[in-house]
Specification:
Elements lengths: L2 H15 L6 E3 L7 H11 L5 E4 L3 E3 L6 E3 L4 E5 L9 E4 L5 E5 L4 E4 L2 E24 L2 E22 L2 E12 L3 E8 L2 E3 L3 E6 L9 E8 L2 E2 L5 E6 L2 E6 L2 E2 L8 E6 L3 E6 L2 E4 L3 E5 L15 H4 L5 E6 L2 E5 L4 E4 L2 E6 L4 E2 L6 E4 L5 E5 L4 E2 L2 E2 L12 E3 L2
Parallel strand pairs: 1-2, 2-5, 3-6, 4-7, 5-8, 6-9, 7-9, 8-9, 9-10, 10-11, 10-12, 11-13, 11-14, 12-15, 13-16, 14-17, 15-18, 16-19, 17-20, 18-21, 19-22, 20-23, 21-24, 22-25, 23-26, 24-27, 25-28, 26-29, 27-30, 28-31, 29-33
Antiparallel strand pairs: 31-32
Length: 384
């Protein structure tokens, strides 16, 4: 054999000998209680490994949360049956179930239930990236299903069901939030089903891009299907939203200097409150800070909202309610908006928000162009 070929072959074998292969660690193969088995599997896991959860994992009410601080681990439920998944749960609804402190972490085909926070993710001073939740089920949380605290990029929550979580999916004070995708998920019950709430994020430093909520089903919530506060560059697309139970409830709630939101190709209703609200805020922070006097509220008004191809099948109150609006509200001609009251009702907005309404937009079955000046207050009424 030619010496050159010998060298190449030796190099190939040498490279192969140093290659690291990902391991699959079966939780059931370890000793101890179910939670001890999970901990032992995690202790052994290295970056790139899969922890295969093939038993239910029980945490006692006074157990500390299961802490994840190693990157590159996938937690995957073994296929159980067509209708069942393996679950992680607490015996009483106390504390956090999972506490995640790193990025590059993935959850797949699992049930999380019965805790104050089912998965709490804390970025600290870092920006966490590459976190995914796929084919999972979250239920019965006292506070959150998934709670993102801090700064994140490249997050994907897909084909996941949330039931009876007060805040099903929440971001909290995210100055940096980019490529945050919620796709093909279902939300049932709860107060805020999706809450992108960045009230304490420094407005001058915010970097938000490609925040997308699409192809989801939102059943009736207590208050909000989707709530945005101090958020930028969000797309709400191809969702079916059923609104809320309370008089002050909305399918889409926009407040606290939220800007540049595209609401596209959704079907929504609210049999009690409004379909959409665009508002300032009453208090600084998360509703528990300084009360904002009326003369300052315009500084927190939301702006630049576009409706494209939506159908509001029914709204008990005004389809779109606006307070202290800024920038513009654009309603394209392919929107079909229905309400028992007005289509748009606003206050403290006339001089600060521009309305761009296409003549072909349907307001309670009538094209906007066909609404006479005398009829207009029955459809659109903006007070200064």
């Amino acid at each position: 054999m030619h010496s050159t070929y010998k060298i190449i072959i030796l190099l190939v074998f040498a490279t192969a000998s140093f290659k690291t292969y990902a391991n699959t660690l079966k939780v059931s193969s370890f000793n101890g209680t179910s939670s001890e088995k999970l901990q032992k599997a995690y202790n052994k896991a290295q970056k790139g490994d899969v922890i295969l959860i093939d038993i239910d994992i029980e945490f006692k009410h006074d157990d500390k949360p299961f802490v994840i601080n190693k990157e590159g681990i996938t937690f995957k439920g073994k296929k159980h049956s067509k209708t069942k998944k393996f679950k992680l749960y607490k015996t009483e609804k106390k504390g956090n179930l999972i506490l995640l402190k790193v990025g590059d972490t993935h959850f797949e085909n699992l049930i999380f239930e019965n805790a104050v926070n089912l998965i709490r993710i804390e970025s600290g001073t870092k920006v966490l990236s590459n976190i995914s939740v796929k084919d999972c089920y979250f239920s019965n949380s006292k506070y959150t299903g998934i709670d993102f605290r801090g700064n994140f990029t490249n997050v994907n929550v897909e084909n996941t069901y949330f039931k009876n979580c007060k805040f099903s999916l929440q971001t909290f004070d995210s100055v940096i939030l980019k490529n945050f995708i919620v796709n093909t998920c279902t939300f049932e019950e709860g107060d805020h089903q999706i809450s992108i709430d960045n009230a304490f994020a420094d407005t001058d430093l915010i970097e938000h891009a490609n925040i997308v909520i699409k192809n989801c089903t939102f059943y009736v919530a207590d208050r909000f299907n989707i709530a945005l506060a101090n958020t930028r560059n969000a797309l709400i697309k191809n969702n079916n939203m059923h609104g809320g139970l309370q008089k002050y409830s909305q399918a889409v709630h926009i407040e606290h200097d939220t800007r540049d939101v595209l609401i596209k190709n959704n079907t929504m209703k609210n049999d009690v409150g409004n379909a959409i609200i665009i508002f300032s805020t009453g208090y600084t922070g998360h509703g528990n800070g300084r009360k904002i006097p009326n003369e300052e509220k315009i500084n927190f008004g939301s702006s630049n909202i576009t409706l494209d191809g939506n159908t509001i099948t029914h709204s008990k109150q005004a389809a779109i309610a606006i307070g202290y609006g800024r920038g513009f509200l654009k309603i394209k001609g392919n929107n079909v908006l229905n309400s028992e009251e007005k289509i748009i009702s606003g206050f403290a907005t006339k001089k600060t928000m521009t309305f761009k309404i296409d003549n072909n937009a349907l307001f309670n079955g009538k094209k906007y162009i066909d609404i006479s000046e005398s009829e207009m207050p029955n459809y659109v009424l903006i007070k200064n």
